[in-house]
């Protein structure tokens, strides 16, 4: 494990994380930018921050990062404007050599031009919207005055005709009195016109009426189409209003109310001739503004098109530059101020690739001094790095969600690839549902190239990322469905005829009585004759419950075996003899023995009660088994196993803390000095022991920790085994739900002999199957399988207290959002 390998194609390590090394790089300042850029292309070096004590503004390249941040802001502004205009940036793979200062000037010019165009466009659009409103006021208010003028003219004519026809003696006197009235005492009414939002018009009218104590006359006219408000730019339904008032006080009050309600006021003339003239002028100005706005829009679209052609290149280049300068800020300046010193973690296989990148950067930058690459020895725990692909990645994510593996700790992903979809399928077993799940997954895989380049929704993106995990789940569901012999809960004689036949003609239409074994045993899975029989539920319950225990004990034993491989790999004999051995003995003395009893009972066809056997193994270990005895010597074996289980508990609890204390004392007395080990071996021992040179050893803490661990394992062995019974419970629930949907929806609708009822029944059956069995049950089985792996399996060996390897890589920049 200690050799350093090079090459362009690293070997795949999934059981243990990649061997890592702490490296130091020293290169001249003139080639620093190019060196870091080439290392970003390699993407296999995680830099350490050597300037932690400095704030971001005190670092060497703070000005360049600020400059890149400003350019990124401008590019985000361009992107927002393009999305508003309906433009999509063109994707380009061409590499263009761009200068930082030139691009900064170019982006500044484009931003200034775009801001100016937008500002002018907003002003013109606002003026256009105001003129549209003004034209509406002229038209609607003009109708008020025209109607009022017409009615006044009619009233005057009627009055005059009445004057001529009436021969009253009082008339000349009254007329003469009216004519002598002082014209200065006549009341002159003022008016205000404008538009108010329709939803506020009633409140607007009420407030004006109250403020003026009813000394106003208000008229409203509804504008049919929504109007674009000049201030907010939103489409709003409005009403044209005309308020007649008397006096300056009333006018001031009305103006304040208009301002409070967001009512836009416009000037208006009583003269009908002037009104017509103003409408003509406004229409002409509207036409001119429309033409100007269209020209500005074309100019803006042309500018955005120019930006869109190079946007992707600029954006990627700015992201790269910013990440390069961020990385340069993590390096420390040499005392001569001429070199940069960097440290970081890299996989051992990447040594040649990194050295090649350093040599190429020194050559391309015409540097007279080459870069120095050296491996450092350290006691620091390295990051964890697994080489994954699109198939193994979702399973690794499932494990990492629980905790990242410690450096070179056994990785559960290797087994999770098989055990996770299999345990899911045990709960989901129905080959009809499995085929539906398979078709959905094949659809995602078929459109893999298209979807991988698109931004999907949260749920869809999660499903697409785990498509190969779902594929395995579907395949295993088909397999377990064939074992259960269920296709949407319907059994089929796929592999051979049923082993059972009717005793006589009376049982031809019923499978509850009168069946006898007439043919060889059904070769694969459950015999279809069990389905629909009186003993179906007891038989399947017994089968699935015992199968769940067997699977659970097998997986827990696998977890304990992996703890042995961890202890052996890290050279920890204490964990081997005082953790692995008592744990394997305790678990198998109880539940391993129960598994053997289950297998013996299946093979022999015995009627022994296993519940009774296991309970009285503890309560009365010396009593005779009687009819529950499965084999000779069972009683003696039970006594031995019970004794081993009792011995395993103190074996697990007591020796380890005392041995750790002795190791610590020997280390400080100088009795355990050994020759220097290789870097990897020292890293493994340090990460395993966790007790560094000058740390104090608290015996009480270690003992309490071991006590908790022992109690947790002993109680967990019982609770974890019981937890695996969820496989039986969810499998039974899935089977019964499928059976209910089939019998009560599909078959019930079929029995009516009505096409409409049949179609409705089929539709409801499909909706119930998809919604409940293919969505909710899939999610339920997935979560339960997740719990079985995280709690019951991984807690036997997996520490999960490591940290991920995050290399400086340009390939990851495209996935990051600013």
Automatic annotation (TrEMBL):
A GO CC term attached to the entry: vacuolar proton-transporting V-type ATPase complex
Name the Gene Ontology biological process terms. vacuolar acidification
Q: How does it sit in the membrane?
A: Multi-pass membrane protein
Question: What residue ranges are annotated as transmembrane?
Answer: 422-445, 465-484, 547-565, 577-600, 636-654, 755-776
UniProt keyword Membrane present:
yes
Role noted for this protein? Essential component of the vacuolar proton pump (V-ATPase), a multimeric enzyme that catalyzes the translocation of protons across the membranes. Required for assembly and activity of the V-ATPase.
This protein is called V-type proton ATPase subunit a
Organism encoding this protein: Carya illinoinensis (Pecan)
